[in-house]
Amino acid sequence: MKTAEAPPELRIFIKLFNREKYFEAHEILESRWRKEKGEARDFYQGLIQIAAAFVHLKRGTPEGAQRLLETATKYFKPYGPFYGGVNLEGLLTQTRSCLLAKSQFPRISLSGSGIHHA
Are 43 and 79 in contact (CB under 8 A)? Predict the structure, then answer.
């Protein structure tokens, strides 16, 4: 999947994610994930897991967040560091940093940079 081909659900997911509306982001992308039968299925599942991790973190259950990060890492493994216009390696690194050091929440970008902080 190329950046230009990013489906509307992914674009909406990113907007919600970047506004720290993780539950809503999860719900939007879940509809796309359920329909997906191709190579992007696990990519969407990994993004859903990342969003769900931040739902857990905001609710004060960091153990659940950590488990979901581990699951997302497994889902992203076949895609390499960059897929669908998203810097997966950067997203995972920033997510780990946020969970461990309670730094700011990461942001996703579909532009060439992949991930940035607001």
Answer: yes
